[in-house]
Design goal:
- The structure is a homodimer of 178-residue chains.
- Chain A is α/β, with parallel strands linked by helices and 178 residues long.
- Chain A has a single domain, classed as Dihydrofolate Reductase, subunit A (3-Layer(aba) Sandwich).
- The first copy, chain A, is built from 4 helices and 11 strands; from the N terminus they run E-E-H-E-H-E-E-H-E-H-E-E-E-E-E.
- Chains A and B meet through strand 7, strand 8, strand 10 and strand 11 of A and strand 7, strand 8, strand 10 and strand 11 of B.
- Strand 10 of chain A pairs antiparallel with strand 8 of chain B, so a sheet runs across the interface.
Chain lengths: 178, 178
């Protein structure tokens, strides 16, 4: 049997590695997500989204629900609004990354999009992420919520490819070496 | 009059932004600096090197003195060994980044290489760095000495170019927007 489920990260960061300011603000990212850099194509390959509570709260402030009708799992120990937009399919889970991955695999999910700083870190630490697609925005912001965190040991990566965009975005794709 | 002196950073980091492990170890970098990625060509354009005390102490453990006969300024409030190798031209300074830049400019230096985490951060904060050349090694190490630090305000950058190497190194060059 192959690996039951694939999980990817697709995220924008400042050059100094922050995915948000300390208060969660994303104002340093280009407006509207910036120049097209593959987000739509990536999302088309995803059949479930796993995000942390803070990311969910942030997404709720957006003008539009960005996930359409795809299943969105929000990791939270507290109750959440399960109907943020018409057609939205939101579910709350409070479990370990491996338990969540197993549950999604059992439902037939093949490719999961993991988002949010703390959630990405937990899944990376549990060795449940296979691919990282990181888009660097050309700015240093000094402080904020970091993409990566402490690790019990090194995680080796294989560089797949890097794309550069007119607006200054640089997107690198890595596979986690198991 | 134009800007009196140019200062650049040329540095390798883990994908999570560390230039060294917490104890200064560089074992996560490829042996011998890895695949040729422009260090020699860069060094040929440099006429002085400014490093912090910790970087100097680390360089002293290398098999070879890496700076030849180029002037090396070590930032330290304590005395240092000024003759680490035959031909080495080492000088100690304990002054502000702007004072050091002015002193080097007065001596005719045109392009200074600034290295070492804390030293890079001090020069960036003083707006004395014009160019950043960052080479990412495909590994996450979790903790260590960070390349970047806190800033009083954002520093906007212009992406110049990104090069990718067979071994997985990705090198991005940025100009600081003034």
């Amino acid at each position: 049997m192959g690996r039951p489920i694939q999980a990817s990260v697709f995220v924008g960061t400042s050059l100094d590695g922050f995915i948000a300011r300390p208060n969660g603000d994303l104002d340093f990212l280009p407006p509207g997500g910036g120049e097209e850099h593959g987000y739509g194509a990536f999302m088309a390959t995803v059949d479930a989204i796993v995000i942390g509570r803070n990311t969910y709260d942030k997404v709720l402030t957006f003008d539009e629900w960005p996930y359409g009708t795809k299943p969105v799992i929000v990791l939270s120990s507290r109750p959440i609004d399960l109907a943020p937009a018409p057609g939205a399919a939101v579910e709350r889970m409070a479990a370990s990354p491996s338990d969540i991955a197993a549950r999604l695999a059992a439902r037939g999910a093949k490719h999961v999009y993991v988002d949010g700083g703390f959630t990405i870190q937990r899944f990376l630490e549990a060795r449940l992420i296979q691919r990282l697609i990181i888009t660097r925005v050309p700015v240093l912001i000094g402080t904020g919520i970091t993409l990566f965190g402490a690790l019990p040991r090194d995680i080796r990566l294989r560089h797949v490819t890097t794309r550069q965009y007119e607006s200054g975005l640089v997107q690198s794709e890595y596979a986690v070496v198991t």
